[in-house]
Amino acid sequence: MKISLILFGLIFLSSCSSVANSEQQEKALIEPDLLKKDVDYAYSKLKEMHPQLYRYTTRKDLDYRIDSLKQTINKPLTPVQFYLKLQPVITTIREGHLSLTLPFEKIKKSYDGRRLFNYFRYYIKGNHLYIIENKDSIYNIKPGTEILSINDVPAASYISRYRKLISSDGQNTTFKPYYLKDTFFCFFSMENGFLDRVKIETLYNNNKQTYILEREKQIEPQNEKSQNKPASSLKSFYCSANRSFHFLGDDNSIAYINIKKFSNSNSNKFYKETFARIKEAKSSYLILDIRNNYGGSLQEINKLYSYLTSQPFTLIKPSRLNSGFTPLKTNYFKKSNALEYALKGITYPTYFFLKTLHTYKGDDGKFYYKIKADKVTQPNKNAFQGKIFVLINGGSYSASSIISSKLKFDKTATLVGEETGGANDGTVAGFYSYQILPYSKLTLPIGLLLVNPNITLTNSQKGVIPDVPISETLQDIISKNDVQLNWVKNEIAKEKKNLKK
Questions:
Q1: What is the C-alpha to C-alpha distance for residues 316 and 140, in angstroms, rounded to an integer?
Q2: How far apart are CA 399 and CA 296, in angstroms?
Q3: Which helix (H) or strand (E) holds 435?
Q4: SS3 396
Q5: Would the CA dihedral through 7, 9, 12, 14 be positive or negative?
Q6: 109-137 per-position pLDDT tens digit
Q7: Side-chain-facing half-sphere of 235: CA atoms under 13 Å
Q8: What positions does the domain Tail specific protease occupy (predicted)?
Q9: In this model, does residue 336 exceed pLDDT 90?
């Protein structure tokens, strides 16, 4: 009992000081010798746990880059400065899920709920940064306006530098513009801190303008009613934002499903109800839109695939581990408060048993981890029987690429759009070991499972290539001209016309 009370007190004191410590660490200079030890620590943990470390790069090349990096560390650096040195080396491994997290929660939440850069939506093409939406008509800035500079620094220089901080699978190039537009100002805040105002220089119709953007003031709730917004309305908004379904046209012959993220939350209910309605409507065509879907749950895409095929299937190959011990290195107690820590301590033997139970050694002498998606799955009784089109782009990543690859290989659907951002042959993810570098305190999440779709691997080092390549332009986005969806609708219209002849 005394030991428990002492442990509780230590955890409580630690949590109370975590914010202050984080701010101190953010500004603290770390000596070069210690930073070099962090580099060695990170590399040793990657070699220990990552099951596919040298797939896209050779050991010789990576050893050279690690050694070269250490030679450039010749003066004390802050954790952010160190991040900007180490992360570009991590990205050369070319494993999309392998990336240092941005240093400290304060940076990731720097918007503080108040807008500065997120007045707008953005688009990146090459080294150009464009505004594509201005919902509040701030300064009446028009969609299509290019941001030339931020605080007198060219936007192109930021883009060039931040692009090197993004990991992508193999030789894929379509993912980075999508991810960079979403993370650009996170990187900017990491470098420049929490700013209340910035100057931007813009270009629209050959006319240059300079504006001052100011962070909006914190808006306080106006009345009791606004403070007690019903939880149900928030929940329904989230669900509708994540998955949606409707029929296109008046005859219900075309079903359209849009999935923004494979979260697995409420997915069984959604697919059950949706495909029951599609079957009842006797729809002939299904359009599955997974553009800008960064992935998520293998369990959900396995369930979804069961509604897209009439044959038994196996979604993925057995998932390989680097060793039989790596499943036990998943930081079971990570981010636990005192109560959670105590409860996890009680349940740890069960956790240990289950992880061990799911780990096995294959006939090839390598270690694997059992996942439901690597077993034969039967098609659902309401599986769609018509023609399927799948919309993909560079923002279709991870689980989105896994299901796209499987659909293409099985010839279950016609893929339309751009090469996916995730690799055709799979990736390393599953569950992670979160390694905290001892001196900089940066976190390196290391994926422990090599997940391959159950296909004949292409070894192309590319994403899933669409059957019908169609790219959208800046003007398409601004004018809301969905060229990829329009192509599918026109193709269906042609088929229907031919059937009537």
A1: 50
A2: 6
A3: strand 427-436
A4: coil
A5: negative
A6: 544 556 788 889 999 999 999 999 998 89
A7: 5
A8: 206-471
A9: no
CATH 3.90.226.10 in the chain: give the residue spans. Answer: 233-316+371-500
Bigger pLDDT: 440 vs 325 = 440
Q: Rounded to the nearest 5°, which phi and psi values hold at 327? A: -60, -20
**Alpha-carbon gap, residue 5 to 3, rounded angstroms:** 5
Domain 233-316+371-500 has CATH 3.30.450.20: no
Residue 193 φ/ψ region, left for φ over 0, alpha for ψ in the -120 to 50 degree band, beta for the rest: left
Helix 59-72 crosses helix 32-49 at what angle (to 10 degrees)?
Answer: 160
**Half-sphere exposure of residue 264: CA atoms within 13 angstroms, side-chain side:** 9
- Here the tokens at position 16 are 């109370």
CATH number, span 107-214: 2.30.42.10
Position 20, amino acid: A
- For 441, residues 6+ apart whose C-beta sits below 8 A from its C-beta are 25, 79, 103
Stretch(es) of the chain classified as CATH 2.30.42.10: 107-214
Contact 327, 321 (CB under 8 A): yes
Span 280-300, average pLDDT: 96
pTM for the model: 0.86
Q: Which of 146, 241, 250, 163 is nearest to 200 (CA)?
A: 146
**Mean pLDDT of all residues belonging to the chain:** 86
Indicate the burial class of 229 (C-beta count within 10 angstroms; 0-12, 13-18, 19 or more). Answer: exposed
Query: CA 50, CA 364: separation in Å to the nearest integer?
Result: 18
Task: Please compute the mean of the pLDDT values over residues 288-308 and round it to a whole number.
Answer: 97
